[in-house]
Design goal:
The chain is mainly α. It has a domain of about 100 residues. About 45% of the residues lie in helices and about 0% in strands. The chain has five helices and no strands. The longest helix has 18 residues.
């Protein structure tokens, strides 16, 4: 758990929100997103403005802007890491803006995005690297001597060895 009380750091959460904002802007900000209300859009605008103040023309922010404007709107893991590192460094240098950024992330946490596009995960549901993001209920069940997992590597199932002689 991070110092901000999230499963991810507050800076990582801010980067995720910035990517949502950049994608929304790149895809025509005039279009109404069904998964974001006006308050959320306002909070995203404020958060992005803070990030711009903190980072200015940082290459990581420029790269994220380019990637969000691409047809798939996907930000690479490398760009997310670079943006996270740049923002981490910036908030270490400016405690006042760090506090403002934390408050902006808190306001967005307190007002989660809506249900997202039909048939897709809720907005804001994301995983990086080999992660799996689930925007709803998941049930994993193993029955009848089977193995189940949301993700697993190689599995070898064998009968257990016979019990040895009693000790004692």
């Amino acid at each position: 758990m991070s110092a901000w009380g999230y499963g991810v750091t507050g800076v990582e959460a801010a980067v995720g929100h910035v990517c949502v904002w950049l994608t929304w802007r790149a895809n025509g900000a005039g279009q109404r997103r069904r998964d974001l209300d006006e308050v959320q859009l306002g909070e995203l605008d404020r958060l992005y403005s803070l990030v711009r103040v903190l980072l200015g023309e940082d290459p990581a922010l420029l790269r994220a802007t380019e990637e969000c404007a691409a047809p798939d709107g996907a930000v690479t893991e490398r760009t997310r890491r670079r943006l996270t590192d740049a923002l981490d460094e910036a908030v270490e240098r400016d405690a006042e803006l760090a506090t403002a950024l934390r408050r902006a992330v808190d306001r967005l946490r307190d007002r989660p995005y809506g249900s997202g596009p039909p048939g897709g995960p809720p907005a804001g549901t994301a995983a990086t690297g080999d992660g799996i993001a689930v925007g709803g209920d998941v049930t994993v069940r193993a029955e009848d001597r089977s193995v189940a997992s949301l993700r697993m590597g190689d599995v070898r199932m064998e009968n257990p060895p016979p019990p040895g002689p009693p000790q004692g």
